Amino acid sequence: MTEASSLFSDAKLVIPGGVNSPVRSFSGVGGTPVFIDHAKGAYIYDSVGNRYIDYVGSWGPMILGHAHPDVIKAVKQAAEKGLSFGAPTEIETLMAQRVCELVPSVDMVRMVSSGTEATMSAIRLARGYTGRDKIVKFEGCYHGHSDALLVKAGSGALTFGVPSSPGVPAAVAENTITLTYNDSEAVKALFAELGEQIACIIVEPVAGNMNCIPPEPGFLECLREVCDRYNSVLIFDEVMTGFRVGLSGAQGLYNIQPDLTTLGKIIGGGMPVGAFGGLRKIMEHLAPLGPVYQAGTLSGNPVAMAAGLKTLELIDQPGFYEALTAKTEKLTSGLKARAAQAGIAMTTNSVGGMFGLFFSTETQVSRFAQVMQCDQDLFKRFFHAMLDEGVYLAPSAFEAGFVSAAHSDEDLEKTLDIAEAVFRRLQA
Ligand code: PMP
């Protein structure tokens, strides 16, 4: 058993920041990250044996809880047959058939190995299909770390191409236009000016990378309308929301059909998987059928497909999402009530199995600027106090949290009891 501080010091010597993905480093909340030894159901266990109720779920994939026995069994069986072949396997077709059934806007789908690859490839496809270069995204939405998508707005106004990460060439960023999420008027104004040059809009249909912001009524409809009018491609990035807010994703929940959909997280059941799919007439532009090139040595990996396919089978049960939504609402309404009792200004959002907590005096948070105004210092203190008591929340005020089917009523009640005491202490 080794303390996290020692593991973190060793890691920092050989891994930048000690982590293989930045937010894991706790740089958003301070302190030393928890090093995980193993996980089961709703719990993760750290390197010295502490147990935490986990509301991160590997950032979304673990909708069934950790190490679900049927998923592990499927993975073991697939692994026995060989880890990778670089040639077609039947399970890839079974996966594609399943995705096409569950997500009606998807006629054809290609598997990749991460959400980043999925969105990057969907953008290339939209550009190749339309012959246009400009793309539209929304401030605060995250679509992975490819160059074209690592661009965000300056001051919330319509912004043309400011690289937000050194290393993104200005020439690439120039073609990414960033607007304000939930601002339909800005979308219409932009398209009135530049619509014919815009290849696509990419959007998180429920934003989960600026905390959790649901779409306002009419916003997704507006995106669909302008894309139809200007022959631009509408891409729903459902890497997070896919199979998380409902069996057909956010597009099923809000009843809007995008042209392309990107998937990740749950579709891999915890293995490194992403996917992009959509209308046949667009997907047929991909190599080897068409000229838009995209490929992957490990794409459609049989072990990853086994984990994903088993997960998709297990979530496809009557009442699954009703139960998940009820759990999430029990958590968020319970937290809100206890914060109010303690005199702490906090509000929440939730959709299906995802949620967000905002330390804010606003009653409804639906814009990026409101998220930025939340009390981050209070969030940090709340995060650490909860962690000390055995509740593992996302270590950032800008990330959604996730509830799994494995969270029991007792887990939720224990979380609320802990939060009640923590809120009182924070207020004292
Ligand atoms: N799109 C969305 C909506 C995401 O939430 C994420 C990751 N959190 C990505 C894309 C990128 O996925 P990955 O980290 O697997 O590259």
UniProtKB/TrEMBL annotation:
Cofactor(s) in the UniProt record: pyridoxal 5'-phosphate
Domain of life: Bacteria
HAMAP family named among the record's database cross-references: HemL_aminotrans_3
Reaction catalyzed: (S)-4-amino-5-oxopentanoate = 5-aminolevulinate
SUPFAM superfamilies hit by this protein: PLP-dependent transferases
Name of the gene encoding the protein in the UniProt record: hemL
A family per Pfam: Aminotran_3
Protein name: Glutamate-1-semialdehyde 2,1-aminomutase
Native source organism of the sequence: Methylobacter tundripaludum
Matching PROSITE patterns: AA_TRANSFER_CLASS_3 (PS00600)
Class in the EC hierarchy, top level: isomerase
One GO term of the biological process aspect: protoporphyrinogen IX biosynthetic process
Pathway connected to this protein: Porphyrin-containing compound metabolism; protoporphyrin-IX biosynthesis; 5-aminolevulinate from L-glutamyl-tRNA(Glu): step 2/2
Family: Belongs to the class-III pyridoxal-phosphate-dependent aminotransferase family. HemL subfamily.
N6-(pyridoxal phosphate)lysine PTM sites in chain numbering: 265
Coiled coil location: none
Subcellular location(s) per record: Cytoplasm
Assembly description: Homodimer.
Entry GO MF terms: glutamate-1-semialdehyde 2,1-aminomutase activity; pyridoxal phosphate binding; transaminase activity
InterPro entries cross-referenced by the UniProt entry: 4pyrrol_synth_GluAld_NH2Trfase (IPR004639), Aminotrans_3 (IPR005814), Aminotrans_3_PPA_site (IPR049704), PyrdxlP-dep_Trfase (IPR015424), PyrdxlP-dep_Trfase_major (IPR015421), PyrdxlP-dep_Trfase_small (IPR015422)
GO CC, any one term: cytoplasm
